[in-house]
Design a protein that fits this description.
Number of helices: 7
Oligomer: single chain
Structural class: alpha+beta
Distance between the termini: 68 Å
Largest sheet: 8 strands, antiparallel
Strand order of the largest sheet: 1-5-4-6-7-8-3-9
Length: 332
């Protein structure tokens, strides 16, 4: 006796595509996919794996910053010519629900453990890292993050935090997750997901599946005109690179740097390069720099600026805080 079950049309459509691409009829496709799933089960959706010993987050002092001002260090969304934002959010949500949704984000984006970047901010400090599992653990365990703060630094804590995670998604799309977790609590003031596409998607089945699995309802796409400024190439030589820490990859090569922020408490430099925008950059004492040419961990190189670009990310922060993405690329 065959089971009488309802299958979502979006999933049924994917099975039809599989059947056509593999020269199968529909019944053969269902049998093959079910058999493969039973013999090679994937981790259960809805569970977020803990990074364990691979958990890696760094604390940045931000003495001139504020809870409502966040700086992220994502590689950027420059490849999109007509970005559209599809947003879904919930208020007064518990951590357990947040982790379930993050697991669905990971599945939708097919995110690897180190893909994407995030910043979690407090009044005068921030934690930065990569990977959605590290992001989930950072949201789950505030006490662990607070223990990273040097004893000599007086961290000011507000009643909530601000957080933003950004990663690449399927078919050239991207995903941004914003959050406002309450301090010393498992509850969030607000939590939202933005799926960012380059124009209206021809195939929206992945988004439909995400809504069904996450329980979120994405709104209609809204256009996003990104405000971006770049430091002119001729000014690169005048900006000194002063590293304070090397970021080492799993291959034991240096992939990035934590450097002194040339814009820290330097309103004149921000005005010179960015005009009246991106004042948030003045608050962070250190910034994350991406190394364009990797090198061995024991090598001490003479670093120089490759490019510096700032982009307004307010539109993907759910109106909870202002956000600036800084792409600070260095070479040697």
């Amino acid at each position: 006796m065959r089971p009488n079950i309802d299958i979502p049309w979006s999933l049924h459509g994917r099975v039809k595509d599989h059947a056509e691409s593999n020269d199968l009829d529909l019944e053969e496709a269902y049998i093959a996919l079910l058999k493969d799933g039973l013999e090679n089960p994937s981790p259960r959706p809805g569970n977020m794996e803990d990074p364990g010993e691979d958990y890696e987050v760094r604390f940045l002092e931000a003495p001139e910053s504020h809870i409502s001002e966040l700086v992220t260090f994502f590689r950027g969304l420059d490849h999109m010519s007509e970005p559209l934002i599809f947003e879904a959010w919930r208020s007064d949500i518990h951590l357990s629900e947040v982790k379930k949704i993050l697991a669905q984000v990971k599945q939708f984006a097919a995110a690897s453990p180190k893909s994407g970047n995030f910043t979690v901010g407090q009044q005068n400090g921030a934690w930065v890292g990569s990977g959605i599992e590290n992001f989930a653990r950072s949201l789950s365990n505030q006490e662990e993050r607070y223990e990273m703060v040097p004893d000599s630094f007086g961290l000011d804590t507000y009643k909530s935090e601000s957080a933003l995670f950004i990663c690449d998604g399927p078919r050239g799309n991207s995903v941004a997750v914003y959050a406002a977790p309450r301090t010393n609590s498992d509850n969030f003031r607000r939590f939202g997901v933005n799926i960012i596409t380059d124009g209206y998607p021809v195939d929206n089945r992945g988004m439909l599946d995400f809504m069904e699995s996450s329980g979120l309802s994405l709104d209609h796409g809204k256009s996003w005109e990104q405000e971006t400024e770049r430091v002119p190439t001729e000014d690169h030589e005048g900006i000194q690179i002063r590293p304070v820490e090397k970021i080492v990859g799993e291959d034991n090569w240096v992939h990035g740097l934590i450097c002194e922020n040339p814009f820290y408490n330097n309103e004149s430099a921000i005005e010179r390069y960015f005009g009246d925008s991106f004042r948030e950059l003045a608050g962070y004492k250190h910034v994350v720099c991406e190394l364009q040419q990797h090198h061995e961990i024991d090598d001490d190189e003479d670093y120089r600026v490759e490019s510096i670009q700032a982009t307004d990310y307010d539109r993907i922060s759910g109106g909870m805080f202002s956000a600036v993405n800084l792409q600070f690329n260095v070479t040697w």
